[in-house]
Write a structure and sequence with these properties.
This protein is mainly α. The protein contains 11 helices and no strands. Helix 2 runs parallel beside helix 6 and helix 4 runs antiparallel to helix 6. The longest helix has 33 residues. It is globular. The model has no long low-confidence stretch (mean pLDDT 94). Bound molecules: zinc ion (2 copies).
């Protein structure tokens, strides 16, 4: 029977991977050219990174995990909060959002989604850096020593749940239409790869408007250098407002992941890491 659960999971897996491959090829082409001409740091190109297999594993694992969890959690919130238990009702309920937020023009819902998710992610990011036992989950993201666009997906599932997945579910449960993802999705995929890319771009006076590679690469340096600054994912304005913005004039970040030297190099060891050192 086609509708059995393992079959559905396998189909979704295939569907997600099918979508990820062309996007990855496109990003690889774009960043190979950009990193060649505007490198922030000299050294080997991205495809010769020591931990490339680890990053490729995350690159495919994360979208599949995120999609599965997002759908699962949306089913749970619809059932618990809105008492919807029927499959057709569920699809109709989320199809175009619900409540007052879904009445706004779609572009405005998209802007709201980007701004609200970014401010929530800023504070969640600070929570992970806050030294309250959360750091061990986020340390994995900071363990890349050869930072490139491909490092963008290196996140522990706990970090994802208390991060992008949790925030997405919250905003969709609040009523924003999932249709905003038509352009919010591609934007965040491209932009998160972009800020990790080995590029010396600062955007000059627009450095406060949109996060750049130099802005985020400072966040990946050691604590003394700038690892405790630049927490915003998309809009550096949160760092300006809350006093954590740092982009020294005329200086480029040089070394990354030095505080996490003891982190295992492969994905299995990294996923187990937070539970081994409790
Ligand atoms: Zn961080
Ligand atoms: Zn990062």
């Amino acid at each position: 029977m086609m509708s059995s659960l393992p079959m559905q999971v396998a189909l979704m897996l295939g569907e997600t991977i099918e979508k990820v491959i062309p996007v990855t090829v496109m990003l690889a082409l774009v960043f190979t050219v950009l990193e060649h001409f505007w490198a922030c740091n000299s050294g080997l190109p991205w495809w010769r990174k020591r931990e490339i297999v680890t990053d490729i594993c995350y690159w495919f694992f994360v979208p599949v995990f995120a999609r599965t969890m997002r759908i699962g959690l949306l089913i749970v919130t619809a059932s618990v909060i809105f008492k919807i238990h029927d499959a057709d009702e569920l699809i109709a309920f989320y199809d175009n959002g619900h409540g007052p937020l879904s009445q706004l023009p779609l572009w405005l819902q998209g802007v709201l989604f980007l701004v609200l998710s970014d401010v929530m992610l800023y504070w969640l990011h600070r929570l992970f850096h806050g030294g309250s036992g959360f750091w061990k989950y986020h340390a994995i993201h900071h363990s890349s020593e050869e930072l490139s666009w491909l490092s963008a997906a290196r996140f522990h599932p706990v970090n994802l749940m208390l991060g992008t997945i949790g925030v997405d579910v919250l905003l969709l449960t609040a009523g924003i239409s999932p249709n905003v993802m038509i352009w919010v999705g591609p934007f965040t995929t491209f932009h998160s790869a972009f800020v990790h890319a080995n590029l010396n771009w600062t955007f000059g006076p627009f450095r406060y408007v949109l996060a750049t590679p130099v802005f985020h690469r400072w966040h990946h340096t050691s604590l003394e250098q700038g690892g405790n600054t630049n927490f915003a994912g998309t809009f550096p304005i949160w760092d300006v407002l809350f006093g954590t913005f740092r982009m020294p004039k005329g200086e480029l970040p040089q070394e990354y992941g030095k505080d996490e030297a003891e982190m295992p190099a492969e994905i299995g060891g990294q996923l187990a890491y937070p539970f081994r050192r409790s």
